[in-house]
Sequence to fold (432 residues):
Amino acid sequence: MKNIVSPLAQVSTEGVDLAEAIAQNLLTTNNVWMMLATALVFIMHLGFAGVEAGFGQAKNTVNILFKNTVTPIIGIVTYGLMGFFLMYPGFDVPGWFGFDGSGWSMFWFSPADADVTTAYADGGYTYWTDFLFQAMFAATAATIVSGAIAERVKLWAYLMFTVVFVGLVYPIIGSWKWGGGALDAMGFYDFAGSTLVHSVGGWGALAGVIMVGPRIGKYVNGKTIEKPGASVPLAVIGVFLLWLGWFGFNGGSVLSADPGLVSFVLVTTSLGACAGGLGGFFAAYFAFNRLDLGMVLNGILAGLVGITAGADVINPIFALLVGFVAGILVVLSAIFLDKMKLDDVVGAVSVHLTCGVWGTLAVGIFSTNPDHSFFTQLIGVLICGGVAFFSALLIFFVLKKTVGIRVSEEHEKSGLDSHEHGIRGYTIVYDE
Fold:
């Protein structure tokens, strides 16, 4: 007897196949965008290297570039060893500490079990993309510390700090919000990391600046002595590379290729950057009576840091305001740090800590989501800040008492390049 297929059953089957095809195509599109965003965040490491090498003195260029080369290497490996599984434990009950042991086992020993289907992350991306995108964020937090304590910190001490800070401190704090922990349950909001990445790194930088101390000759008889950077053009290139990378940093934090939300986030991100540059421009002019390029550059970064916490929930007009205030704050913060004799080579504390705190609190003021409150944001800032600062302080204290954290006076004066690396960053060779 010939089988007869019901027309209704055929339509139903075709409908299932069509739905599966659409879901798979969406996963592909979303995942391609997330991988592109990951690449953009990776470019930020080149931006950090340019900014730090540009603002640092020529005699320390190789040392600075060495740190900025090794930092993402250590950051990604350390995050793969433990950070990823500390940050995303999947709390059964929102708490303060967890570890996804099964994820660790799958990552290293059973990669075939990794979920690369539409069932993972609502079809936004695969397990592997998830890891790599988050690993780029982790390495960024350590790079922030590098710029603040440049030109006088021992290389091995910095690298050991990076292993502990990226491997333990950053992912544990991040899990409290992004891993579904206690801060997330409280209603704390940080879209792309004004607090969880930038101010956490900024608190680490502040602890490092305090423990390492200022560079020799930076503060003399109550005056701040400027130390000329090696290359202003390199610093400018670095800032624009960071701005480019921020499109992936914030745009990728949508966690899908949603055209409406991604484009909105990129607009608020750019507006924040522009307004930050203007804020730094005007604030520096009134404070120093000069057109200070360095403060305009840091103003751009300040605006980017400031808008990062609420790029998806703050309307464009208020994104301009958030960025402009951040640009002013970065100048005032830099002045305050110098008065306190806290020597920050690139202004990392002012950019990432001061403006990271401002941007997180701004969510409680300007967010379009009525569930976001200023008080909750403040509590989150205090908790994350307290843990990050005192953890970093403890790490630096232990390193200071064991291996030491500061180079010798002789090495600092003559430059770290020749003593630690045997080459200089800038050389002119004439044929005989």
In short: The chain is about 70% helix and 0% strand. The longest helix spans residues 7-55. Residues 364 and 374 are 4 Å apart (CA to CA).
